[in-house]
TrEMBL record:
Alphabetized CDD domains for the sequence: DD_EFCAB5
Name recorded for this polypeptide: EF-hand domain-containing protein
Organism encoding this protein: Patella caerulea (Rayed Mediterranean limpet)
Residue ranges occupied by any EF-hand domain in the UniProt entry: 729-764
GO molecular function: calcium ion binding
Skewed-composition ranges (Basic and acidic residues): 444-479, 495-505, 512-607
Species classification: Eukaryota, Metazoa, Spiralia, Lophotrochozoa, Mollusca
Length: 1342
């Protein structure tokens, strides 16, 4: 309860105060005891009591007065209090009203205050300049709208809000009016503007401080990064300085630029296998420049500067990978020095063994020596690296002895040995690593300066020998008769080089002294050979001369036509041999003195280098990569990558001419002979990865002592070489005559014309001989007609020479014919130009990467050029059509013509159209007759089909000629059509020499087309082989096929990457096959060595083992190669190795079959599915596998099947194989479960099963419905590697047979499906053609 105190005013006088004091103090009372009275009444109530105590009148008057004053004062005070309270209430209400109004206005204005600092300046401008007036104008506008109720009415034409607002803004311009300041909103806006200015000011200060701090931070970070970059740059420079010392720096401290360019280029290839995140950042600083071919060399500083331009932006991780790659390249460069040393020794050995002097050795005899050496040394610990000479890759895949186990395959634990482990194991036999610094390297090289000078001279002399040998080989390869005497002269190369060794600088002396260290006699190894060469050579040569004369006499009795030429050649040989024998006999003492001096020098060098007891001390050549192209050698070393010409320090060593280089580039494989490069390659393959020097030396001596030829063998080789030289000379002379006769390049000569000219020989005295020769040629030539090809013309000349007696018949006949076909100067100029254009067509096919587009382009360009130069400026159009078997609409004819190429003006009307036999035209008449058909005026012919139906009849004037395209069997496979309908001249008729040139274009196109077609078919066959290799050899990492083709200069060849495998999926064709040039691929030169020698090459490139297998044509030259990469493994598991050999053998068989067919042989069609040429190509590889398995199964006897039946509880693998085999013949029984019982399976294992297997054709139409997926279920749990381990030949054959059959069935099903899809599309196009024909008929009728 609240307490209330009564009011006690102060008395006006002391008496009153005393009275009040005497009356005592009042006590507070509760609110409930108070009376509801006014202050006056309260005092009135108390007065009587006061008067009773005080008493007296005088006092009462004072009291009254006091009361009155008191009451008056009290009332005044109460009034003032009441007034103050009222005013405070009014003020509070006013403040409340102002507060309520102020809050809404400020909130509206405060909306312009935002935390978005990006718009502070804009908002400050709007708040300060625009909003105070605009907002009031909008407010006034809304007020008027509400007052006039315009919002609820239709649009008032008398009131425009925009005009109203504009008027308001003009009348209240802040420059002339401050009316807006009276608005509370404007006042709020002004406050907001001040706040924004402060915010902007504060923000500017903070921004400046932040910018300064950010700049400082960035500068610090940049300086730190620059510091790290500088440190990294210094580290990389140091790495490059160290790496430079690994490149066998020359005496002058320089290394060739081309090596580093190849290393950079190869790094791009390696980077393609990096993870995706590294691949994106692995690009070099800028694009690579063309590989240097001028011999520029770099010093240490130049090397660092050059490399930094490419690698300075590489991330650290990628740089480390780059340095690893550079180290591998440097190691390959160093390893090439050892191979170059072995090459020199092996080349010398080859020339010592080449007793007949024709630069060829007997291949079987060399392989026999390898086998003997292997049998003697295979138990020697040092000979573990030798490869079995009875197994691939030493011998060919079809020569490998499967009955003899390969020791490499027995060494199962070493299968997974990597190339890096091999490299570590081989450090004992490799030369010591290069010094760690340039100074130490320079010092070492300076100490051996004399040795380098001797090596330089010695290498020159060795190259002279090799050049002479290779020139002989090149002459034989090209069969160039103009260089025939060199064949004989080169036979004396070994003795000539012995004479050159008299200065004590040749390699022979070094080898002799090294052999003397092993306790062997120098005279026995070297001097003995020299003396034998001096003493016996004369006797041998005299015997050779005598026997050659006897052989010539016998040969003359058989063929008088070759007598005189052979005598001339033999006389030259005899004269050269006698002269050289006299020189040798006159200088034996000088040679012995020179040999002794060489021995002393070599002894001193061997002692200085601490060669120990090694019989051969390889001398490090000045250039580790000096490998001439004319002697390509494949390698098998740890990093066995050889290098091409142009990578050495001494450019003067290259002594061969360009012609000899191109001749020796691609050596043809001959199973009976070896040239020098093939011998070196074969020997190195036999020696293995890293041969021990002692093993290598003993092999040299073993071959030198073991290779012997009898006099009869030498004479047979000489006679054969001379006969080939004579044949080559005559062939070249006849070809020259043919080209001269065929001035317009048609590729054919008219038989009647040739016969009429030859009949004038000797005034017609030899007409009868010419007639007999012609009849004999018709018997021998299966495809004879009234036109002679170059081969048939050559055959006719040779037969005529044989019919006419006399040794000078050939020369006189050719001289007569040459004089009889003299051409005028203008004709010769025209013929040369046309032959150049024809050659461009063939070249386009050879260099086009198995594409027909360049060929079509070259054909049309040749036609355009000839029409402009020799056709009177005719405007011609041309098209090419191919004959196809009409399987879609056989009622319209057995064959049809599909247009595959056309000139641009006709492409829209002709391209990809099909001409059927029931349509107008002369094309099928030319196709069937095989002869050109010329229509001088197409408008008057009436049987010409016009594809362009929009051409009016009066515009259909001009000439038209259609020329058959023929293969080597002179069967037409297409047509070349040429017309002048678009020519505006009225007389645009083809004349004779133009028609002959068109025939030449058809012949050139035919050659080009078959070249490309053969390449394409080989690619498809290889694709099948690669697919099988992927399935059967899981350890194979990658398989790539390259094709060889001439380069643009015609000096060398390049490789085209055509086909490659992907990690998952079938092989893929390269859309734009890249070109690999020799100069750009020094560290993958094994590819070029494989093509050079046409032999298998094993090599390590970039840390991966590669097997390069050549694919040869009929002549034995490699036209393609298959590069198999097995990663870092040393060798494949035995069963995978055997499978690869099997696949490569079948692939080579398929290539041989294809090349023979394109050379005119009959096509083998064994299976029913091979009736179609396209299908035949796709299944050829599988068909060859099937035929091989058929042959193997047919050779199984009763004992082999009895072995299978002898199982009581056979392995599950054998059961599954037999179930799958029987399911192909008895699928119903297999599904019923009859073959789940082994007892029942055994009843089918007999000779009858073998007969069923050999007779089964999986491509037959009746077997295409066989569900292959059901049969595959039986084989899904049979791993290929486990089949061979059970040792069951029938089981292995049946396992492979089942898979081949299933593959053939799948192939045929896909082809049938594609054919069905093609029928529907062709039906639509056929309807369109019918519509076009109707339009054409209507146009003609009009």
């Amino acid at each position: 309860m609240a307490e209330v105190y009564h009011y006690q005013p102060s008395p006006p006088s002391s008496a009153g105060a005393m009275q009040i004091a005497m009356s005592g103090e009042r006590t507070p009372t509760s609110v409930s005891s108070r009376r509801s009275t006014t202050p006056g009444s309260f005092y009135k109530a108390d007065t009587p009591e006061f008067e009773q105590r005080g008493g007296g009148s005088g006092s009462s008057t004072g009291v009254k007065r006091w009361k009155r004053l008191h009451e008056q004062q009290t009332m005044e005070q109460l009034s003032s209090l009441r007034h103050e309270k009222k005013e405070s209430i009014l003020i509070a209400k006013q403040k409340a009203r102002e507060t309520a109004r102020k809050i809404s206005v400020e909130l509206l204005a405060k909306e312009w205050l935002s935390e978005n600092q990006a718009t502070v300046e804009i908002r400050a401008y709007l708040v300060d300049k625009l909003l105070p007036t605009l907002i009031l104008g909008v407010e006034k506008l809304l007020t008027v709208v509400d007052f006039q109720e315009l919002a609820d009415k239709d649009r008032n034409a008398n009131f425009n809000p925009l005009n109203f607002l504009a008027q308001y803004l003009l009348r209240n311009n802040p420059k002339y009016s401050n009316f807006a300041e009276a608005s509370p909103y404007v006042r709020g806006i002004r406050q907001v503007s001040e706040d924004l200015r402060m915010q902007l000011f504060n923000m500017e200060d903070n921004r400046l401080a932040k910018i300064k701090a950010d700049v400082k931070r960035r500068r610090t970070e940049r300086e730190y990064k620059q510091h790290l970059t500088q440190l990294e740059k210094i580290r990389r420079s140091n790495c490059l300085l160290t790496q430079f010392t690994e490149w066998n720096v020359a005496v002058d401290g320089r290394v060739e630029l081309s090596l580093f360019q190849n290393a950079l280029r190869s790094f791009n290839e390696v980077a393609e296998h990096f993870p995706e995140e590294l691949k994106r950042v692995s690009r070099l600083g800028h694009s690579l420049e063309p590989t240097d071919e001028t011999g520029i060399t770099l010093t240490l500083n130049e090397f660092v500067k050059y490399m930094n331009t490419y690698i300075e932006n590489l991330p650290r991780e990628v740089f480390e990978q780059f340095m690893v790659h550079m180290s591998k390249c440097a190691a390959a460069y160093r390893a090439s020095a050892e191979r170059e040393q072995r090459r020199i020794y092996l080349s010398n050995l080859f020339m010592r063994c080449d007793h007949s002097g024709i630069a060829l050795l007997d291949r079987h005899r060399i392989l026999n020596l390898f086998e003997q050496y292997w049998d003697q040394m295979k138990n020697d610990q040092n000979c573990k690296g030798l490869r079995n000479p009875r197994q691939w890759p030493v011998v060919e895949v079809d020569e490998a002895d499967d009955s003899v186990g390969d020791d490499e395959e027995e060494d199962e634990p070493s299968t997974q040995q990597t190339t890096e482990e091999v490299a570590q194991e081989s450090q004992q036999v490799l030369p010591q690593p290069p010094p760690a610094s340039i100074e130490s390297t320079q010092k070492t090289l300076d100490e051996n300066k004399d040795l380098k000078e001797e090596v330089k001279t010695e290498t020159k002399e060795e190259e002279i020998k090799e050049e002479q040998k290779v020139e002989v080989e090149g002459n034989k390869t090209e069969e160039n008769p103009t260089q025939e005497p060199e064949v004989v002269e080169t036979g004396e190369t070994p003795q000539e080089i012995k004479q050159e060794g008299k200065d004590g600088e040749t390699q022979n002396g070094q080898v002799k002294e090294a052999e003397s260290k092993d306790g062997e006699s120098n005279e026995e190894v070297k001097d003995g050979e020299a003396k034998d060469g001096e003493v016996k050579d004369g006797e041998v040569k005299e015997a050779e001369v005598k026997e050659v004369k006897e052989a010539e006499l016998k040969e003359a009795e058989v063929k008088d036509a070759e007598l005189k030429d052979a005598e001339v050649k033999e006389a030259e040989v005899k004269e050269a041999e006698v002269k050289e024998a006299e020189v040798k006999e006159a200088t034996p003492e000088k040679k012995e003195t020179a040999d002794s001096e060489k021995e002393k020098n070599e002894t001193k060098k061997a002692t200085d280098t601490g060669s120990g007891t090694d019989t051969v001390k390889p001398v490090k050549p000045k250039s580790a990569l000096k490998v001439e192209r004319e002697e390509p050698v494949g390698q098998t070393g740890r990093i066995s990558v050889t290098f091409a010409e142009g990578t050495t320090f001494n450019r003067e060593k290259t002594g061969l001419t360009l012609t000899s280089r191109s001749q020796s580039q691609m050596s043809a494989f001959d199973e009976n002979s070896l040239n020098v490069s093939q011998f070196v390659q074969l020997t190195e393959t036999f020696l293995g990865d890293e041969p021990v020097k002692d093993v290598f030396t003993r092999l040299l001596k073993f071959i030198k002592d073991g290779y012997e030829e009898t006099e009869d063998e030498k004479m047979d080789r000489l006679t054969k070489a001379r006969r080939e030289a004579v044949s080559a000379k005559r062939k070249s002379m006849i070809d020259v005559l043919f080209e001269k006769w065929d001035n317009d390049g048609s590729g054919y000569l008219d038989l009647e014309e040739v016969e009429s000219v030859m009949a004038k020989y000797k005034d017609g005295q030899e007409v009868e001989a010419i007639y007999y020769a012609k009849e004999e040629m018709k018997k021998k030539s299966r495809f004879q007609d009234q036109r002679l090809s170059k081969r048939e013309f050559r055959m006719l000349i040779q037969l005529v020479v044989q019919e006419i007696p006399g040794s000078e018949t050939f020369d006189s006949l050719l001289e007569f014919l040459t004089n009889s076909v003299e051409r005028s100067y203008s004709d010769r100029i025209r013929g040369e130009a046309r032959k150049k254009w024809l050659q461009q067509i063939v070249t386009a096919a050879e260099t086009g990467g198995a594409s027909m587009e360049p060929v079509y382009r070259a054909v049309f360009q040749a036609l355009y050029k000839d029409a402009e130069a020799h056709g009177g400026g005719k405007k011609i159009s041309a098209n090419i059509s191919m004959s196809e078997r009409n399987v879609k609409f056989p009622q319209r004819g057995e064959t049809c013509l599909r247009y595959v190429a056309a000139t641009p003006e006709d492409a829209d009307y002709v391209l990809d159209k099909i001409l059927y036999n029931d349509m107008k035209g002369v094309s099928f008449a030319a196709l069937e007759s095989g002869k050109p058909i010329h229509v001088p005026r197409v408008g008057n012919h009436g049987n010409i089909h016009f594809w362009n139906t929009r051409r009016r009849p009066e515009e259909r004037e001009g000439s038209f000629i259609v020329i058959p395209l023929k293969d080597k069997r002179k069967r037409a496979f297409g047509l070349l059509g040429i017309d002048t309908i678009a020519d505006p001249h009225t007389k645009a008729i083809f004349i004779t020499h133009e028609i002959q040139f068109f025939q030449g274009i058809a012949k050139a196109f035919s050659i080009a087309y078959h070249h490309v077609d053969m390449r394409r078919k080989l690619l498809r066959i290889t694709e099948s082989a690669v697919s099988w290799i992927q399935r059967r050899s899981p350890h194979v990492r990658e398989v790539v096929e390259y094709m060889a083709e001439p380069d643009s200069k015609g000096m060398d060849y390049v490789l085209r990457k055509m086909l490659t495998t992907v990690p998952k999926g079938p092989p893929e064709y390269c859309a734009k096959p890249p070109r690999l040039e020799r100069k750009d691929n020094l560290f993958r030169d094994y590819l070029f060595k494989c093509v050079d020698n046409s032999e298998t090459v094993t090599a390590d490139a970039y840390g991966e083992r590669h097997l390069a297998f050549p694919l040869r044509d009929d002549d034995g030259k490699a036209i393609a190669l298959v590069d198999i990469s097995i990663g870092d493994m040393k060798k494949l598991p035995p069963h995978e190795n055997k499978e690869i050999q099997r696949m490569l053998r079948i692939l080579q068989m398929a290539h041989k079959e294809i090349t023979k067919e394109f050379n005119g042989a009959e096509k083998m069609r064994i299976l029913e599915g091979e009736q179609d040429d396209e299908a035949r190509t796709d299944i050829m590889f599988d068909r060859l596998m099937l035929m091989e398995l058929r042959d193997n199964v047919s050779k199984l006897d009763q004992q082999a099947y009895a072995e299978l039946r002898s199982y009581k509880d056979p392995p599950q693998i054998i059961c599954d194989i037999l179930k799958a085999t029987l399911a192909i013949f008895f699928l119903d029984k297999a599904e019923e479960g009859e073959f789940d019982d082994w007892i029942r399976i055994k009843t089918y294992i007999n000779i009858d099963l073998s007969q069923k297997i050999t007779a089964y054709d999986p491509t037959a139409q009746k077997d295409l419905n066989l569900p292959a997926d059901k049969i595959e279920l039986y084989m899904k749990d049979v791993p290929h590697g486990e089949v061979a381990k059970h040792g069951s030949l029938p089981g292995q054959y049946m396992y492979n047979w089942v898979f081949v059959c299933l593959s053939l069935i799948e192939h045929m099903k896909k082809m049938r499906q594609n054919e069905d899809e093609g029928v529907s599309s062709d039906a639509v196009s056929d309807k369109e053609e019918d519509v076009n024909m109707d339009d054409q008929q209507k146009t003609e009728a009009e």
